[in-house]
Amino acid sequence: MSLPDNSTVLIVGAGPAGLTAALSLIHHGCRDFVIVDAIVEGQNISRAIAIHSATVEALASINAADVLLSRAIKGKSIRMTSRDSQIFEVKFDPLKKHSAHPYALFVPQNVTELVLVQKLQSFGVQVQRPHRVIGMKQNEQDPHITDVSFEDGQVIKARYIIGADGARSTIRTISGIGFSDPEGKNPSNHLLAQMVVADVTFEPEPVGPLTIEGHLNNTLFSGSVLMLMPFGNRFNDELTRHGKPTTKPIFRVACAVPVENGEPPHSPPKEYVQDLIDTYGPACITSVLSLNSTPVKIDQLIWSTRFRTHSAIADRTFTRLGAAIFLVGDAAHIHSPIGGQGVNLAIRDAIFISEAVTKHIQASAENPDVDDTILQEIAEARHARALEIIGFTKNLLKLASLTYDPYAWWMPFSLASLRDLVLRILGRFDFVQSRIAWGLSGLGRR
Questions:
Q1: pTM for the full predicted model
Q2: How confident is the model at residue 308 (pLDDT cuts 50, 70, 90)?
Q3: Deepest of 68, 166, 182, 336, by most Cβ within 10 A of its Cβ?
Q4: In this structure, which CATH number among 3.30.465.10, 3.50.50.60, 3.40.50.300, 3.60.15.10 belongs to the domain 6-72+107-184+311-398?
């Protein structure tokens, strides 16, 4: 498909961050933009699944939340459990005092992307696919324009570029921006350095409180954690196996794989995922501890993947190479999925940065010599927010990775046992639940 020769704004990447950036530009009055993506079509895998209160508010501020609210599961709580009992439950109800959206939305990322794409299409905007960026250079005639070249030989001249092209961002690499752990540590030096994620169905269908829709469940094991999210039949049309929907309820499973167990396969097979569930999962979904008379086993493996839980952040999220260049989403920062903060930070980055871009466009129309103060300030604010979120998720990761091994010969209890005891006690107090729900919601760190 032919691309225009010129565009005020070029958005590279059509994941949640890029799509939201486009919707934010439209909301704030900018229609002269192009959004491109390197792949032929969006994927049908679920990936990120939690959208917290602050992000719902941000989407509502650009009139992009209504359809998502109608499609998603409104989450009631996040639970921490042992294999056979509850340790702690974070309820979202206390957020009613702070937000019109006192819940987390549980929705597969591909459904989120589909909703955002359809919203864009309602404005007559299409994602241009497949167009892979391979080069950028300052325009020879105008020092405020960048010539962006694509694999198929086309070139777009752009005044602003929003790089939403993922953790291996081409925009970031060509711009010469570094990307590393803010603490400079080896990302593999912790117990939860690698995880496996899968969407599955079970036979027979599991029973018990952990299988009830609206609750995200985390089963703590020594040096590991297994997450279980029941989707029911709500997303069966979008989460397909070989292009065919299933009629059975779908469950999202995510499990940390201890480093000593070796590296997981690239696309873990059903047997591998079943072994993780049997080893680390709650009784209601294991084939060895099942509450049913017939052992519960995976029936269909709809999708699976592996990934590392390292953290990294771009040295800066704003630079100039002729055009003003921003990084958003995974191109700007990545971190542990614990706490479900990644896609939330990406969406909020995109909304706030696109608003600043439109303000700068308007200011430039009145004064061609306007400086970059507006752009620099928002970039520094989002960079600081990303550092804060990385620290927050690292702390959660440390708590989740505690083991039940005795701390020392002179101290016969383990740090994990102490954690569980403290959580069981603190969980009785409403103000503790409120504080944790507030921290996860993002309302204090928009």
A1: 0.93
A2: confident
A3: 336
A4: 3.50.50.60
